[in-house]
Amino acid sequence: MNICMDYCGTCPSLPFPPQPYLFCARGNSDQTIEKNGCKCPACPVYISNGLKGMYFCETGKAP
User: Fold this and answer.
1) Structure pTM?
2) Which of 5, 9, 33, 54 has minimal CB crowding within 10 Å?
3) Contact call for residues 29 and 61 (beta carbons, < 8 A)
4) Is 6 within 8 Å of 21 (Cβ atoms)?
């Protein structure tokens, strides 16, 4: 959960604090997204699972 707090929790495109975390696995956020940058590609979960894409908070689960 600490990884999610470090990446999803400090996302510049979401209001703070975003809920829930782990958008790449759980799905998109119901909060308003303002694209101000995406931390997904730098996240260890993204890297270790070979994910592609950005803004999972808006687009939903990773394919």
Assistant:
1) 0.84
2) 5
3) no
4) no
Residues 6+ apart with CB under 8 A from 44: 3
Amino acid at 27: G
Q: Kindly report whether the peptide bond that precedes residue 20 is cis, defined as omega within 30 degrees of 0.
A: yes
Q: Encoding tokens for residue 53?
A: 């894409």
Q: How far apart are CA 36 and CA 13, in angstroms?
A: 5
Confidence of residue 18 (pLDDT cuts 50, 70, 90): low
- Report the greatest alpha carbon distance in the chain: 28
CB neighbourhood size of 8 (10 A): 25
